Amino acid sequence: MPTSIDTVLVTGATGRIGPTVVDRLSQTYRVVGNSRSGGDVGDAHLRGDMTRPGDAYGVLARSDADAVVHLGMLSNPDGTPGHVTFESTVGSSYLVLEASEALGVESVVLASSMSALGSGFDPDPVRLSYLPVDEDHPLTPRDPYGLAKQVMEVTADGVGRRADAPTITSLRVPWMPRPEDVQRAFVEADRSLEALHQHESYHSIRNTLFAYLHAADAADLVARAVEADHAGHEAVWAAAADTTVDLPTTDLLAAEYPDVDTTREFEGYESLVSVEKADELLGWEPKRSWRSA
Predict the structure, then answer these.
(1) Where are the beta strands (DSSP E) in 12-99?
(2) Which CATH architecture has domain 7-176+213-239+271-286?
(3) For the chain, which ranges sit under pLDDT 50?
(4) Parallel, antiparallel or unpaired: strands 30-35 and 233-237
(5) In the chain, where the domains are located
């Protein structure tokens, strides 16, 4: 693991998951926050738009960061033109990676998404070859958001092949609820499959394999990725150990994905997302479940 990381730049620090990540990283590092609108998250805060080359290079240089966590992308494309959605992820990530290489940054963590699979915002049903999904599963996105995440990862592959590249880790994450979200969406709600069929977001819930990741576990994962020392770029899946539905996973498979092959048996409410690589590469596994909230 890198031993010389002292300062971490977190882009999108004032966004939905940003403050949780900043708080977690602040336990170990000096954290510089970044956002387009400004704010007071972190030990210092630098304003800048990561889709603009001058801003991206300027913010990284002024932060004097040893590692970068790039969260500053659109997290929900609803109501945004496709080209804006695509540029937000691909353009900003390219600039962050280029600037990080040029400035000698040791580690870069990129916020990828389950949408790289071709799921979250795709109007059609998710295309599955087998379950649980892992890093060998094909990525077949078609919508601008999912395509952008896949292209971001391909770009990271390329930059990671360079001689002076930082360690780059892409985190494929689902919805990351905070404690108040867990209480509202899970504990106080009917999580039966029948109820979810009536939910306005049922299509997305099914497409993302009834997966979630507690925000605190996501922040722990980011902290592990900051410390990674693997060569080049690696992408990892991440999700809670259980699903978001009050139904055993074997029954969920029979009801929702009856024609999809499975590579192993499932126990209890086990997730349909494999996090074995995250454990092997980063020493991370999820610890929190909405069922014990």
Answers:
(1) 30-35, 44-47, 67-70
(2) 3-Layer(aba) Sandwich (3.40)
(3) 1-2
(4) unpaired
(5) 7-176+213-239+271-286
